[in-house]
Specification:
The chain is an all-alpha fold and 36 residues long. Helices cover 81% and strands 0% of the residues. The termini are far apart.
Length: 36
């Protein structure tokens, strides 16, 4: 189990979520830019 009380782990976890969200937004835009 991940210790969510650990501040560093929480920062890493939130950073990963942010990166995934950014990729989810950017990838479709890049794909549509390349396709059209």
């Amino acid at each position: 189990m991940i210790n969510f009380n650990n501040k560093k782990n929480k920062q890493i976890f939130s950073a990963i979520i942010i990166i995934i969200l950014v990729l989810a937004m950017v990838v479709p835009m890049v794909a549509s830019a390349l396709l059209y």
